[in-house]
Write a structure and sequence with these properties.
The complex is a heterotrimer. By secondary structure, chain A is mostly helical. Chain A has helices at residues 2-29, 34-39, 45-54, 61-73, 87-122, 127-141, 144-158, 174-208, 211-219, 223-252, 255-261, 266-276, 279-307. In chain A, helix 5 (87-122) packs antiparallel against helix 10. In chain C, the strands form six sheets. Chain C has a seven-stranded mixed β-sheet with strand order 8-9-10-1-11-19-12, with helices on both faces. In chain C, strands 4-5-7-6 form a four-stranded antiparallel β-sheet, with helices on one face. A four-stranded antiparallel β-sheet of chain C has the order 14-18-13-17. Classes of the chains: A mainly alpha, B mainly alpha, C alpha+beta. Chains A and B meet through helix 1, helix 6, helix 7, helix 8 and helix 9 of A and helix 4, helix 5, helix 6, helix 8 and helix 9 of B.
Chain lengths: 314, 262, 517
């Protein structure tokens, strides 16, 4: 197992390198550059040339990438082309915000989803099952921004219980932060719940049809114990995969929620960076996101192996 | 027939026969902005004064077809690669899984812009892009399931008997993975529905004035602040289709999961 | 997201009628406000605005969008202000005098003004601040000050500006929001020092900014609130919700329907300004088929402008007539041919060009102007009646101004209002302009426009500008269907809020103008 982890971590760095190259050249190929984005459409050619010279944009892309890579290997992620500020200083607080929101949503959503999925599977076809299924299917039918708008309409505008803006800043107390972050969290929970619930339910149901389950039933095991100790571990694989996918989404894919709630997360930072063609910032955000997925995939595979010992031999 | 089947059938009929069923033209302006329902406009008008019912019917045609094709592509590709990676293991698994990681890590915005810049805008490009990006998620799940099945004794027995790889995949792995994959396919169809709208918003895919349910929710969303329910019509349509399709999946799962059925 | 309204320079001629006024509120705001925490919030004006980005800087050379401009005016002062009627009034420049032909101007500096760091304002500071944008400088305002060939100090209170071409409205030109005054040699843009009413306390680009009153502000009847907080809220619905739920006092950039909704509620006031910003579908006059003047006219008659005004802007604007000077401008030519929707006339012009039908593509994005996509779809429907098949191509907002604008032969674009007529014409209609999006080049037009710019006699100017407008309207490649009002809204607690003649939020000076009841 240890060797496996080491190999995966090694490959993880390779993956990060490939992603950094892809992002760099892809963003570089998009129309426009940081000079045009900074000065706007009214810029004179001289002004554009001055900025381009000072940022060394004239060098070929390959060379610029190599410079960037060399710096990164020394731990220097460089400065934003648009503002001159340190990239790490710009990204760190935003990424922390993203992780905070993702973490809170995950802590609520994952246990809830597993619980609902198991409950629905145990009483498949019953009223609870149908209610849970309908709720889940409704939430995935509605775009995330619309869920956000509806929640804001209800809780901020009509009831006035919660703020509609999730802008966080230094002077806020913990209670204020939690209050600001509540609606975005609920939105995200609703968004990711369905996938995990439905997959849990399907996985358990498919395992329940196996002969050894019938055997255990005949032996007199209660349904609860049956599901938890026999069905769940065998159904774990797809459930773990779905949870990992959704955790990844919570970190990387929630720009829309950031926009609706004006939450200062890393998603919006990356969108701005791409829009300004601010390559060092794009790279840093991209690497942060990629590291998240690589890490989650690694953890998911390890957990799958822990749950199902047979996989360790593979 | 069950209620879900009826709902899905109605939507499919609308999709197939849209030009004959729709009361007005897809791009025809018939009234003011967000007019309330009336005899001439059963669901009122949309944000530009077009008949909402007409737009829903044409939206069925546009979106269901694209979503159907993209889902087929995503599931087919994801399952095939996932099973192969699980069955072959070793460097095949490592390579494909890393490739999938890379695709998952690149934010959708950048992928969409890159595709647009490189390949231009067309329905084929849209379907291929969605199919490829969504297949990564199907791959992750398919691979996870297949790995647990591959290590079980009956598979080893089959390999020892000399059965080929494809036979093992089709006869041993697929049936056991089917329930979870069926659930995933049903959900994936719904996700793709909304993904189409996101990509159209970015400029890739459905061009105006073609109707698309997901985009209709976005275009009509501001009406909510005025107490108007215009966006709820396309949202309900999506919900009905989602619930219908996934209920059908449920019925299939229920039939397959009776103890002893394997 | 919000269109890049501030990337353009600004239009205004000398006198301008004010816009429709605000709807005052009577009842007090019922509190469901949630305190936003951090610091003393009594007497704090909270603004939620579109136009911020994480790459914002407070360096005036980089001001291309609203939020840094708004903050800039809290911290620093400009040379000249534009009042509510559109006239140039003194700010740090107290008075001005042109020499005979308006090529040389003498400006007198206001005395007794002190920067936040205690330094007194001298002509060197003004010269340095203007020179930031001249020469080999990466400034977005370079085109504005291009006309200046010499800038020198005459004595301790006066400076002299020499121009390449005469400009009778130089003071209005100098009101550009990037020409803010900082001490001579200043470069620390993370902590700007200015002569404004407030100093910087917190600045998180693209998120929020807090400034605090210094006291002893030289400007009479200004800087009332103790502190100002500006939040960047790019999503229009999020902005509206923030106002309704009491988290901000002022929001900008709301659409026409939301404006009606707000007006019905006595807790809020709505301010509507006519600043001359316009939407345009620009045809490349050097490309086929737009090179043919009759094709251009056919396309101009094939759009239903009234319907666009009603559907896209909900009436908050004026119908445009394919030239950039708005109807409420004193130099507006009243005798222009109205290009009202007329499919028959369109067909007539098509036939004159030798065609029965026309098939063209129009590239748009909501980055071009608010509602551009909807406007294009409506245009598509209207043009079909005239035998014109218009393919609407939705392009990504990202990179629109690099990849589509000035590249696609028929595309959506936009212009903010300008402080001078010449500013509006120079930007996109003179042959020498780098942003001449229609590539319409007429040396006669250039000659007349430059003549008018230097003409000090108002009657003669009006005549000359009239001819210019006719040329653009009849022959130009710009299809301008709408002038769009700026609409902003806020709680009725905010007092002293007026419509403005340029940009929104009182020319972005709302921070120092209003007070809280």
């Amino acid at each position: 197992m240890r060797g496996l982890i080491a190999a995966r971590v090694g490959m993880g760095f390779l993956t990060l390198a490939v992603i950094s190259a892809l992002l760099f050249f892809a963003t570089d190929c998009l129309p426009g550059d940081v000079a045009a984005a900074l000065l706007g459409p009214q810029a004179t050619p001289e002004a554009l040339a001055t900025i381009r010279a000072s940022l060394r944009l004239g060098e070929p892309a390959g060379l610029r990438y190599v410079h960037w890579l060399a710096a990164v290997l020394h731990g220097d992620f460089g400065r934003s082309l648009a503002t001159g500020r340190s990239v790490v200083a710009m990204l760190r607080p935003r990424f922390q915000n993203t992780l905070a929101l993702a973490g809170l949503a995950a802590i609520v959503a994952v246990p809830l989803a597993l619980g609902l999925g198991v409950a629905a599977a145990m009483r498949a076809g019953g009223r609870l099952d149908r209610a849970v299924s309908t709720l889940c299917l409704l939430t995935i039918s509605v775009p995330e921004f619309f869920i956000g708008y509806l929640l804001i309409l209800l809780f901020s505008v009509q009831l006035g219980w919660l703020p509609s803006l999730a802008v966080l800043h230094g002077g806020m107390s913990l209670a204020q932060r939690l209050g600001a972050i509540t609606l975005p969290t609920i939105t995200l929970v609703l968004v990711v719940l369905a996938h995990m619930v439905r997959m849990t339910r399907a996985a358990i149901l498919s395992v329940m049809s196996a002969p050894y389950i019938e055997m255990a039933l005949l032996k007199g095991l209660t349904r609860g114990s049956l599901v938890l100790r026999h069905a769940l571990p065998n159904a774990a694989a797809p459930i773990i995969a779905v949870v990992a996918l959704n955790l990844g989404y919570l970190v990387v894919g929630v720009v829309v929620v950031e926009v609706v709630f004006v939450y200062p997360g890393a998603g919006q930072l990356m969108v701005d960076a791409v829009g300004k063609r601010d390559l060092p910032l794009v790279q840093a955000c991209g690497l942060a996101f990629a590291a998240t997925y690589v890490g989650l995939n690694l953890v998911a595979d390890i957990v799958a192996m822990l749950v199902n010992p047979r996989l360790r031999r593979a | 027939m069950s209620r879900s089947a009826v709902v899905v059938a109605i939507i499919l009929t609308a999709a197939l026969f849209a030009p004959w069923l729709a009361p007005y033209g897809e791009a025809q302006f018939v009234g003011g902005v967000w007019d309330p329902p009336s005899v001439r406009h059963l669901l009122g008008t949309d944000n530009l004064g077009r008949d909402m019912l007409t737009r829903l019917i044409f939206g069925a045609r546009n979106t269901v077809s694209i979503a159907g094709l993209a889902t087929t592509l995503a599931v087919g590709l994801g399952v095939a690669l996932g099973f192969l990676a699980a069955a072959l293991g070793g460097w095949v698994d490592a390579l494909v899984s890393r490739g999938v990681e890379i695709l998952l890590s690149i934010p959708v915005l950048i992928s969409a812009l890159m595709v647009l810049a490189a390949l231009g805008n067309s329905l084929a490009v849209l379907i291929a892009t969605i199919g490829l990006l969504e297949s990564t998620r199907v791959y992750t799940i398919a691979r996870a399931i297949a790995r647990t099945i591959v290590v079980r004794e009956f598979v080893a027995a089959a390999r020892l008997r000399g059965e080929g790889l494809v036979w093992v995949l089709a006869r041993e792995i697929l049936p056991n993975a089917l329930p979870a994959l069926a659930a995933e396919t049903g959900l994936r169809f719904s996700f793709i529905f909304l993904f189409i709208a996101s990509l159209s918003f970015l400029g890739l895919g459905i061009q105006p004035p073609a109707a698309d349910w997901g985009s209709m929710v976005r275009e009509n969303a501001p009406a909510i602040n005025f107490g108007l329910i215009a966006p709820l019509y396309p949202a309900t349509a999506i919900a009905l289709l989602t619930i219908g399709v996934n209920r059908l999946v449920d019925r299939y799962l229920a039939a397959e999961s009776r103890p002893g059925a394997a | 997201m919000s269109p890049p309204l501030a990337r353009r320079e600004f239009l205004r001629a000398a006198a301008l009628c004010g816009a429709a006024g605000a709807v005052g509120g009577m009842a007090s705001l019922s509190g469901c406000a949630v305190p936003d925490g951090g610091g003393d919030t009594t007497g704090m004006l909270r603004i939620g605005m579109a136009g911020g980005s994480t790459s914002d800087s407070l360096d005036p050379r980089t001001y291309v969008d609203w939020m840094p401009i708004n903050i800039g005016y809290q911290l620093m002062n400009g040379l000249v202000e534009i009042d509510a009627e559109g006239r140039a009034v003194p700010e740090l420049l107290e008075s001005w005098e042109p020499e005979g032909d308006a090529r040389v101007w003498t400006f007198k500096l206001r005395q007794g003004i002190v920067f936040h760091n205690g330094k007194s304002l001298t002509p060197e500071d003004v010269i340095y601040s203007i020179n930031l944008h001249r020469g080999r400088t990466p400034s977005a305002a370079q085109a504005v000050v291009e006309n200046i060939v010499a800038l020198r100090k005459l004595d301790a209170t006066r400076i002299q500006i020499t121009l390449a071409g005469a400009d009778a409205e130089l003071p209005a030109t100098l009101s550009d929001y990037r020409l803010l005054v900082v001490p001579d040699g200043f470069e620390d843009w993370a902590h700007p020092i200015g002569t404004g009413g407030y100093t910087l306390e917190v600045f998180e680009p693209g998120v929020r900014c807090i400034t605090r009153k210094v006291g002893g502000y030289w400007k009479p009847n200004a800087a009332h609130v103790e502190a100002i907080q500006v939040l960047s809220i790019g999503d229009a619905i999020a902005r509206t919700n923030a106002l309704i739920s009491g988290q901000v006092d002022v929001i900008n950039r709301i659409d026409g329907r939301t404006a009606d909704l707000m007006r019905r509620n006595p807790r809020f006031q709505v301010i509507r300004s006519q600043t001359g910003q316009y939407a345009v579908f620009a045809m490349n006059c050097e490309a086929e088929p737009y090179a043919n003047a009759d094709i251009r006219l056919a396309l101009k008659y094939a759009i239903d402008r009234e319907r666009l005004l009603k559907t896209v802007l909900n009436g908050y604007g004026t119908v445009g007539n394919d030239q950039p000077i708005p109807p409420n401008n004193p130099y507006f030519a009243k005798d222009l041919a109205a290009h009202t929707y007329d499919p028959d006339k369109a067909r007539h012009h098509l036939r004159k060009a030798g065609r029965e039908r026309l098939d063209v593509a129009l590239d748009v994005s909501d980055a071009a102007f608010f509602g551009a996509l909807d406007a294009a779809i409506l245009y598509q429907g209207a043009a079909a009646e005239a035998g014109i098949t218009l393919h609407v191509r939705r392009r990504p907002a990202d990179g629109y101004w690099s990849a589509v604008w000035m590249q696609a032969p028929f595309c959506g674009s936009y212009s903010d209002g300008r402080t001078t007529v010449d500013g509006a014409l120079a930007k996109a209609y003179k042959s020498t302009s780098a942003s001449n999006e229609t590539r319409w080049r007429r040396p006669e037009f250039d000659r007349l426009a430059n003549l008018a710019r230097g003409e000090l006699d108002p009657a003669r100017r009006r005549e000359l500008y009239g001819v210019c407008q006719h040329m653009i309207c009849d022959d130009g490649g710009a299809l301008i269907p709408l002038f769009m009002d700026h609409i902003e809204a806020g709680s009725d607690k905010v007092r002293g809020w007026q419509p403005s003649a340029i940009y929104d939020l009182m020319g972005q000076r709302i921070g120092e103008r209003v007070w809280l009841a």
